[in-house]
Amino acid sequence: MTPKHPSESLTTLTDLVLPSETNPLNNLFGGELLARMDRAASIAARRHSRRIVVTASVNHVAFNRAIPLGSVVTVEAKVSRSFKSSMEIYIDIWVEDRESGNKTKANEAIYTFVAVDDTGRPVEVPQIVPETELEKQRFEAALRRKQLSLVLAGKMNPHDATELKALFT
């Protein structure tokens, strides 16, 4: 399989925050943002693998900034690292100021998707070759995040988590 660059999976979704999508404080519901992130991450994973993909986990979500009614929200997702059949998708959420047009990073998330065949069995995906400094940082950190998830799920012995051990020795 030919390796791919993260930029090949880049998915950008831009939408407006409508009244039916807000809480009593007139901010975007967290669940609505999660759904938008899941859709963007799904498209990014499919672009990378060219297969059917399913959400395996939501590894991290940071709701750092409320997103008010009427805001223009941009969700950017791309594959940060791939493993055998799974792909880590890093998602950045941007809010555009209504008056100036300046974009500010509001939130971020990390999802994991698995590529599957028509029967739902996992299939191999291409590897990732990061290009930018940020892509390289996210690529390197992805293995630590994967090992931590496996250790916490009881699927990996902590002694075998070499990337995690390297942080502490």
TrEMBL record:
PROSITE patterns linked to this entry: HOTDOG_ACOT
Q: What Gene Ontology cellular-component terms does the record carry?
A: cytosol
Q: Which domain of life is it from?
A: Bacteria
Q: Which InterPro entries match?
A: Cytosol_ACT, HOTDOG_ACOT, HotDog_dom_sf, Thioestr_dom
Q: Which UniProt keywords apply?
A: Hydrolase
Annotated HotDog ACOT-type domain residues: 7-119
MF terms from GO for this chain are: long-chain fatty acyl-CoA hydrolase activity
Protein family (similarity comment): Belongs to the acyl coenzyme A hydrolase family.
This protein is called Acyl-CoA hydrolase
Q: What organism is the protein native to?
A: Flavobacterium glaciei
